[in-house]
What does this fold into?
Amino acid sequence: MKIASAIVTNRGGRTCHAAIISRELGIPCVIGTGNGSKLIKNGQDVTVSSAEGEKGVVYEGLLNFEIERVDLDDLPKTKTKIMMNLAIPEKAFSECQIPNDGVGLAREEFVINSHIGIHPLALYNYEELKKSSDPEKQKVVKVIDGKTGAYADKKQFFIDKVAEGVGRIAAGFYPKDVIVRLSDFKSNEYANLTGGTFYEPEEENPMIGWRGASRYYDPKYRPAFELECKGLLKARNEMGLTNIKLMVPFCRTPEEGKKVIQVMKECGLVQGENGLELYVMCEIPSNVISADAFADIFDGFSIGSNDLTQLTYGLDRDSGLIAGIADERDESVKAMIKMVIATAKRRGRKIGICGQGPSDFPEFATFLVECGIDSMSLIPDTAVKTRLAVAAKEKELGINV
It folds into this structure.
């Protein structure tokens, strides 16, 4: 995907992973065509456009296009922080040049998938795998040896790569806040990593299965999470990147949050120490309904509108069959968002949004301003236009910057 000029898929919806990564890469993407792979032939010239409303278009041939330029010196300031979503460390030092207030969502998954590519438990259990006579496990050992090179301690490879990837993003935006979401692969995605099939269950619906917080304190996965924590600790303490804040995804209950915070503490990531703030993703209805209880243990919230929308509707956003039903602009989703913002403001907790909604829909961004949200984290190529929309709304509401 990193070398493609555009992405066209047969399946998926607007918030599926192919769409999310294409936004990170800053390239056009048309999702869920049904038959795109059959209609587009190898070597055929096509123009892919995702700039013509809510539906993408694939044109035959190479079309002319216009480039709109904005003078960044004329951009207005806003009270609402305009942050960015980022996953690709290599893009940090270019994306940071877009006017921004930091990173509201740094995804670890890209670092783990592209820079490591090995299931953390396979690295943790390397010596055990090496002793096995199972030919499949020996294949994994060979891949690990090839990727880790001179590393005698294979666990240290994972720690260092997490620190390097996250650290590069944090360095690009230093000293502004960089909120790093802890790893949020689903079991089917973890299984695709080298050695992953030895450690992952087969779930009927991984999207609402063993993911996020429920993994971190589970004895079956905790050793892997501890490696992740050590990598993040290295980035903060050894590299001096204390602008890194951490965020727990898919935390179903406050009790889960407490368990995760305790594991992190035992790994040296102590809430409040050396300026460390811990946030929770607000992406499950329980996060909204029990927001007061979550506010007791976390420093703030970040609304993940993609998952909050799918769970409000009760659908799987990876399913192309029903993806068109979900819309974060629906009153049911907006009521959830308005409710949790009100609770966070009452409790004096920070609250932002890192979901796709404000990047795609200017009217959704202005709704968030009306609710009093503290920050919006956007895909880089929409940061400028959204700032303009937010500034206009703040002016209309008489909000002083």
The chain has a mean pLDDT of 93.
